[in-house]
């Protein structure tokens, strides 16, 4: 979260957190009791604005969790995994990536509620590592370890832990999660509790504050979840049948908005006793199941030797970051960052209002491009994980997930297409760099260049024509 | 060197119908553009002298390969070659010299070709509707395969192509047979046909399609093919009512009694060495021409046979990224040929269900509410094609395939929920009238390649 926003968070507490070295501790004490009673909106806010602010914070947290889980999931594997553990590692990877998909659903649903309140999308977040008093713990891109798993478990834990977790096991998990600095790990539920209360209260948010006409530009399960509902797509490797369960909920009424926020708040924690016993249902249970079988230090390595918080070449890395120094890996890290920006731009584009260009007709094209970028990100991450981090060669490079300088979005459909073309052009320069086109992954780079060339050609048509009929026929006349 | 055993290779050959006198020249499918469909490349072709029955030359055809002569499609006429197992385990081509070593000559090889078209019989189950052709020979003449049937008009037959024992010569001494399929014509049971049940009785018209090729006699005692209606019993084909005809007042499909000249059957070769009779057989079939010859379907007969032969699971040693890429390429090649918006069930110019597609069949067969399969916005064809190309690209990076869970399982073909209908392959019908799946073996290949990609080439069983 942008540091300038932290000051607003004081209003969430019955007393402002002290500006101590560890505001997180303060927050735990306060949220542990209850959130501040509120008859009037916090200073500088209306209730609607405050709701949008909290949703923005929620979006940032969901976005950060999603990326962290992707990073952790992608870290699993590598040639050092003993053969007898291949199946388990493949299964863990699928479970973690399944949870990341569910977080994408959370992010999309939060954006829908933001749209429903008539506010602009909130796709921004800080680069890793970063921290906030509302964050469950300092966010970081880390490979999967028992310690990171412990953090995930505590973050997603229900208020009462299930009976099958012994006192000793819980202690071990909490100790690992706290780490050497004895950090407190927050549960994510508190923020949603406040949001649900606010959105559900007609005395604070009148019905006229809602924008049901935004419904067509909200993400739908049909378009985004790709059939990942209640494990309907099964999980041949992980052997699960109920997950992933990607919730993408739209809001056309107050009740819809409350239901959507409630559903995503509950998906992490095991909401009831039955769910608390089920290894598939909640994020808490799924992380716990992995934790119980994850190798202890020195037993064997389940993950590639990737660093924490890798960053592409540039200014020297700040504390907690690891600079990618290998020339080839560095270029691929730049490629990764551009493709990540492309993904965010497509996501934003798909939410933009129909306008004269009749985006609704082209929405599917943008969404398919967005899914295509997810595949590309996965592929580039795979390339990075096979390249060294630096000359020492012991560690591998990994996906940096660095945010673009700006997420201010274009105003017209044509301007969106021009942005996409710009990003493709910038990426082309990198892929044509001799370090890449003569490197180990030259074939992939060449194929990606060819794919992008086709995409640019198509996008030029869209950018140049105010109305392009899709699905029927296209001509180059408008270009 | 004595001959212990003979075989015919290939053991299964598929001919393709065509009315041109010139058979289609050989070609191979080669992937040149990593994001494109396969390219047709000319391959060595044997030219048969139609007069002598000998092979006059082997040549490289000119590009582009010609699929038609005017309106006539060039038939695919496969060669079937006899191989011999001699002293070792290895199969060698059976040649004039090898025969001579056994005191035999080309005339010592006896060929028998037996073909049938049982399409009418498959429905009516009346023996008299079986159309069968058989011929045996050791000479090098063209032997027509005339399909005979008890329910045909006197003197009428259904041409099912021809077979010719290629005359070996010094340059091409191998023992081989060539099967040339029929022209791809439609035959009938009447010079007129009913197009509808009108209020004043059936509406009849002159049948321009078969009027010169009426061979079936519907007046015979056991001849029910013309006027046939599938009874709606478990023995019906699935889907049923897939024969040419008209819908009667009750909406049932009534057969016009059409017959095509497709067929399948057995080719046998036989030689007598002393007391020993050696025999081999191969299967042949004649099907319609390939109208997208530069693409392969996502699931082929070859996939079925591989599964039947080797089982539903792939050995880890046989798992390779190339094989997974091939499946994805076939998906891409297929989707580029689909009108995805129509097949998805999108309204087209305001019309719902204007064409036959899976959503319509879900409604017709199960009374499911008519609804498109995917979100209507997602199925723009260029965009779906681009998405498949992105998958092909991503696989080039060495990343393990991630889409195994979006594949429809064979036991899920009847899942008509939104989720079930959106699995892959999408929008297409399988052989059992419901949604298509890959074979279990194809699915297993993709599943196992996940492990091999994840551990950089080392899969669990290696």
Describe it.
The complex is a heterodimer of chains A (479) and B (462). Chain A is mostly helical and 479 residues long. Chain A has two domains: 3-293, no CATH class; 310-478, Ferritin. Chain A has helices at residues 23-33, 47-75, 86-116, 146-155, 167-178, 189-199, 221-224, 254-268, 273-277, 283-293, 327-351, 359-384, 413-431, 434-437, 442-464; strands at 310-311, 322-323. Chain A has a two-stranded parallel sheet with strand order 1-2. The model of chain A is unreliable at 14-35 and 471-479 (pLDDT under 50). Chain B has 462 residues and is an alpha+beta fold. Chain B folds into two domains: 5-115 and 130-140 and 158-181 and 262-287, no CATH class; 301-454, no CATH class. Chain B contains nine helices and 23 strands. Chain B has helices at residues 96-101, 119-124, 301-310, 321-335, 340-343, 358-366, 381-395, 418-421, 440-454, and strands spanning 5-9, 12-16, 27-30, 39-42, 45-48, 55-59, 68-69, 72-73, 79-85, 91-93, 110-117, 131-137, 142-147, 158-166, 176-180, 186-187, 192-198, 201-206, 245-247, 253-255, 259-260, 263-273, 276-287. In chain B, β19 and β20 (253-255) form a beta hairpin. In chain B, α4 (321-335) runs antiparallel to α7 and α4 packs across α9. Chain B is globular. Residues 457-462 of chain B have low confidence and may be disordered.
Q: Note the main sheet of chain A.
A: 2 strands, parallel
Mean pLDDT across residues of chain A = 82
For the record, give the distance between the C-alpha atoms at the N and C termini of chain A, rounded to a whole number. Answer: 41 Å
Structural class of chain B: alpha+beta
Shape by Cα distribution of chain A: globular
State the total count of DSSP E strands of chain A.
2
- Name the strands of the widest sheet of chain A in spatial order: 1-2
Specify the overall morphology of chain B: globular
Total domain count of chain A: 2
Main sheet of chain B, how many strands, which sense, barrel? 6 strands, antiparallel
Q: What is the average of the pLDDT values of chain B? A: 93
Indicate the proportion of strand residues of chain A: under 5%
Helix content of chain A: 40-55%
User: Structural class of the helix and strand makeup of chain A?
Assistant: mainly alpha
Number of strands of chain B: 23
Question: How large is the count of helical segments of chain B?
Answer: 9
The most extensive contact between chains is: A-B, 58 and 54 residues
Radius of gyration of chain B, Cα only, in angstroms? 25 Å
State the helical fraction of chain B: 10-25%
């Amino acid at each position: 979260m942008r540091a300038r926003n932290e000051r607003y968070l004081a209003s969430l507490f019955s007393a402002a957190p002290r500006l101590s070295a560890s505001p997180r501790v303060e927050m735990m004490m306060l949220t542990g009791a209850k959130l501040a009673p509120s008859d009037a909106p916090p200073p500088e806010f209306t209730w609607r604005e405050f709701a949008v602010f909290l949703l923005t914070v929620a979006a940032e947290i969901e976005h950060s969790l999603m990326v962290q889980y992707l990073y952790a999931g992608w870290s699993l594997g590598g040639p050092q995994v003993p053969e007898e553990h291949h199946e388990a590692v493949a299964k863990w990877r699928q479970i973690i990536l399944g949870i990341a998909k569910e977080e994408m659903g959370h992010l999309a649903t939060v954006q829908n509620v933001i749209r429903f309140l008539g506010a602009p999308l909130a796709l921004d977040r800080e680069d890793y590592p970063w921290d906030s008093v509302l964050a469950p713990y300092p966010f970081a891109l880390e490979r999967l370890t028992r310690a990171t798993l412990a953090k995930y478990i505590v973050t997603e834990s229900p208020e009462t832990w299930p009976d099958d977790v012994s006192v000793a096991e819980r202690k071990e998990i909490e100790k690992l999660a706290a780490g050497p600095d004895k950090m407190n790990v927050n549960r994510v539920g508190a923020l949603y509790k406040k949001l649900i209360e606010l959105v559900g209260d007609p005395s604070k948010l009148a019905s006229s504050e809602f924008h049901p006409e935004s419904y067509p530009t909200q993400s739908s399960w049909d378009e985004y979840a790709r059939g990942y509902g209640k494990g309907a797509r099964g999980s041949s490797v992980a052997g699960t049948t109920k997950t992933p369960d990607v919730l993408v909920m739209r809001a056309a009424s107050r009740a819809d908005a409350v239901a959507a926020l409630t559903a995503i708040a509950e998906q992490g924690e095991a909401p009831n006793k039955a769910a608390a016993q089920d290894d598939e249902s909640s994020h808490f249970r799924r992380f716990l199941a992995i934790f119980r079988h994850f190798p202890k230090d020195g037993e064997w390595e389940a993950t590639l030797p990737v660093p924490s918080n890798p960053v592409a070449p540039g200014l020297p890395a700040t504390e907690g970051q690891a600079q990618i120094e290998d020339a080839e890996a560095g270029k691929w890290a730049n490629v990764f960052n551009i493709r990540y920006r492309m993904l965010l731009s497509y996501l934003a584009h798909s939410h933009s209002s129909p306008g004269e260009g009749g985006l609704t007709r082209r929405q599917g094209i943008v969404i398919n491009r967005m899914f295509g970028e997810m595949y590309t990100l996965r592929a580039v991450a795979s390339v990075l994980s096979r390249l060294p981090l630096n000359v020492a060669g012991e560690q591998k490079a990994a996906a940096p997930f660095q945010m673009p300088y700006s997420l201010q979005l274009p105003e017209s459909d044509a301007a969106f297409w021009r942005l996409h073309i710009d990003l493709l052009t910038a990426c082309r320069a990198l892929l044509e760099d001799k370090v890449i086109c003569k490197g180990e992954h030259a074939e992939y780079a060449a194929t990606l260049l060819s794919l992008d060339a086709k995409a640019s050609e198509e996008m030029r048509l869209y950018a140049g024509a105010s109305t392009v009929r899709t699905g029927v026929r296209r001509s180059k006349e408008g270009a | 060197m004595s001959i212990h055993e003979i075989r015919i290779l290939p053991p299964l050959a598929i001919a393709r119908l065509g009315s041109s006198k010139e058979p289609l020249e050989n070609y191979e499918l080669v992937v040149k553009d990593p994001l494109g469909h396969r390219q047709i490349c000319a391959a060595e072709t044997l030219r048969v002298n139609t007069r002598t029955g000998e092979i006059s030359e082997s040549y490289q055809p000119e590009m582009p390969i010609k699929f038609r002569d005017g309106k006539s499609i060039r038939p695919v006429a496969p060669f079937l070659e006899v191989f011999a197992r001699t002293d070792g385990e290895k199969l060698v081509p059976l040649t004039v010299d090898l025969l001579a070593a056994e005191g035999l000559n080309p005339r010592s090889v006896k060929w028998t070709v037996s073909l049938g078209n049982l399409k009418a019989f498959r429905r009516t189950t009346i023996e008299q509707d079986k159309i069968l052709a058989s011929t045996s020979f050791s000479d090098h003449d063209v032997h027509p395969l005339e399909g005979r049937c008890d329910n045909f008009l006197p003197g009428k037959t259904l041409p099912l192509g021809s077979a010719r024992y290629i005359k070996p010569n010094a340059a091409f001494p191998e023992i081989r047979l060539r099967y040339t399929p029929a022209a791809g014509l439609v035959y009938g049971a009447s010079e007129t046909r009913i197009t509808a049940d009108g209020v004043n009785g059936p509406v009849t018209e002159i049948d321009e399609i078969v009027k010169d090729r009426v061979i079936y006699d519907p007046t015979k005692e056991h001849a029910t093919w013309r006027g046939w209606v599938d009874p709606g019993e478990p023995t019906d084909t699935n889907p049923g009512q897939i024969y040419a005809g008209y819908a009667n007042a009750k909406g049932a499909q009534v057969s016009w009694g059409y017959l095509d000249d497709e067929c399948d059957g057995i080719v046998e070769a036989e030689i007598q060495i002393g007391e020993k009779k050696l025999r081999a057989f191969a299967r042949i079939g004649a099907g319609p021409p390939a109208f997208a010859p530069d693409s392969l379907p996502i699931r082929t007969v070859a996939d079925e046979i591989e599964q039947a032969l080797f089982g539903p699971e792939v050995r880890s040693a046989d798992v390779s990224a190339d094989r997974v890429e091939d499946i994805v390429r076939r998906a891409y090649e297929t989707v580029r040929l689909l009108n995805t918006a129509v097949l998805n069930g999108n309204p087209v110019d305001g019309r719902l269900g204007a064409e036959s597609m899976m959503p319509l069949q879900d409604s017709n067969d199960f009374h499911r509410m008519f609804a498109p399969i995917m979100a209507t916005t997602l199925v723009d064809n260029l965009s779906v094609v681009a998405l498949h190309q992105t998958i092909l690209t991503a696989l080039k990076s060495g990343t393990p395939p991630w889409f195994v869970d979006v594949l429809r399982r064979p036991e899920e073909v009847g899942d008509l929920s939104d989720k079930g209908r959106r699995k892959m392959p999408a929008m297409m019908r399988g052989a059992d009238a419901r949604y298509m799946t890959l074979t279990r073996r194809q699915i297993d290949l993709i599943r196992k390649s996940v492990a091999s990609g994840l551990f950089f080439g080392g899969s669990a069983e290696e």
